[in-house]
Amino acid sequence: xxxxxxxxxxxxxxxxxxxxxxIDMNNHVHNSKYLDYIQTARFIQMRDCYKVPMExxxxxxLNWFASEVHLEYKRELKFGDVALVKTQVGDxxxxxxxxxxxxxxxxxxxxxxxxxxxxxxxxxxSGRPTRIPDELIERHRI
Length: 142
Fold this sequence. Notes:
Layout: E1 11-17, H1 31-48, H2 54-59, E2 62-73, E3 82-93, E4 96-105, E5 110-123, H3 134-139
Antiparallel strand pairs: 1-3, 2-5, 3-4, 4-5
């Protein structure tokens, strides 16, 4: 995974409380829920931190698709824990952007999941990838 050491983009964080329906038969957060946490955090951060809410993309006839996901599971979260989801914009390339992700247990400050996601900007009308406008890239450089 690309580390933030070489990356000067901001790292933003969002807290998510682990709910009862997030728990699997092993009495910890099911692996699929971490992806939900990350997607939720990105949605909030795009609106609150980058000031580019999803409604703006939709209004321009654009949407983001998750193209690739790579997550490494390190430690468990349990019911009642608070997940601290941190994300950072990585590399931009054509219609795609890499987002670095980390999920911590807020109480212990220990990493539970780390990885990266590749998102592709897509035209809603055609369903085809579309180059990310320079103006949008600049708005994410904070």
